[in-house]
Design brief:
The chain has a single domain, classed as Fido-like domain (Fic-like fold, Orthogonal Bundle), CATH 1.10.3290. It contains ten helices and five strands, in the order βββαααααββααααα.
Length: 297
């Protein structure tokens, strides 16, 4: 928690956790935009915790894949795509098990007595993922891009909704205090999102950028259904584009994942999701010789 301390008439922001402290002078009088300053200060604090670790992870990954044969890289993408598709679908209620998903995507065996809709969307999601990671990288991701991705996954299962933004209000079933932007605001919010997305400086932390893109898009909730899946695709496409390890959010960890999203949305502060995401990403890519598991809360 960021607090304001006054020492001899001078005001400072202070945050202390796990024995690490950061301070920032804010003047003799407290600024009117103090809440925004607190958010920026807290983000600066956590960036100091994760940026160096992320740089090491990405550097190690780039070195590892630099001379990897194309055939091996394709197999790795296919393997990841199967696991990614299973988990992202399962989080949204798919009835297909992990073995069902593998049989479908590897052997072309349609699972018996399982939802036809789940089967179609699983195949479509995997096909789109493989197309994205085996095609020339996009110079930018636009509104038309994600509408097309949505259409490709749902064109056989969500007739009339696929490739279109929603026409009704939505909220989170488990938390009635969260309501996403109104239908009328969607075009404006999407324009703002893509303006932000395509001004990204690749010299910055691409992993944090992917996390923020996921959070911002899913918080707009532009579709009637499929927002989580499209947001996680955008997240992984950004990681792919900037040569970072891809991110697998496991279905078994969906509770903490959704809780971090909800907390950020309720408090209107992305830091709660970013902390969860960066810790999860670092832990997923950790080697004992490279980094210690982060302990920030």
């Amino acid at each position: 928690m960021v607090i304001i301390v006054n020492e001899r008439g001078f005001n400072y922001l202070r945050h202390n956790i796990q024995g690490k402290e950061k301070r920032k002078y804010i003047g003799k009088t407290i600024p009117r935009n103090i809440e925004n300053l607190k958010k920026e200060f807290l983000l600066e604090f956590y960036r100091e915790q994760w940026n160096d670790i992320i740089q090491k992870i990405v550097k190690r990954y780039k070195k590892k894949v630099k001379d990897r044969p194309h055939s091996i890289q394709l197999k790795n993408f296919q393997s990841f795509g199967i696991t990614f598709t299973y988990n992202t679908q399962r989080m949204e209620g798919s009835t297909l098990s992990q073995s069902d998903t593998k049989d479908l995507l590897v052997h072309g065996v349609t699972p018996a007595k399982k939802s036809k809709i789940d089967t179609i969307e699983t195949q479509k999601h995997y096909d789109l993922f493989i197309k994205l990671v085996t095609s020339r990288k996009l110079s930018k991701i636009t509104k038309d891009t994600i509408l097309q991705w949505h259409k490709e996954i749902f064109d056989q299962t969500k007739i009339g909704e696929a490739g279109n933004t929603r026409t009704h209000r939505v909220g989170v079933i488990t938390n009635q205090s969260i309501e996403f932007v109104s239908v009328q605001e969607i075009p404006k919010k999407l324009n703002e999102f893509f303006d932000w997305l395509n001004k990204y400086d690749p010299k910055k932390n691409s992993v944090e950028f992917a996390a923020r893109a996921h959070y911002k898009l899913v918080s707009i909730h532009p579709f009637a259904d499929g927002n989580g899946r499209i947001s996680r695709l955008v997240m992984n496409y950004i990681l792919f584009k900037y040569d970072c390890p891809l991110m697998l959010i496991k279905n078994n960890d969906r509770r903490s994942y959704f809780k971090s999203l909800e907390k950020s949305q309720i408090k209107n502060d992305e830091i709660y999701f970013l902390k969860w995401f960066m810790k999860y990403y670092i832990k997923s890519n950790k080697l004992p010789s490279l980094v210690a598991e982060p302990h920030w809360i």
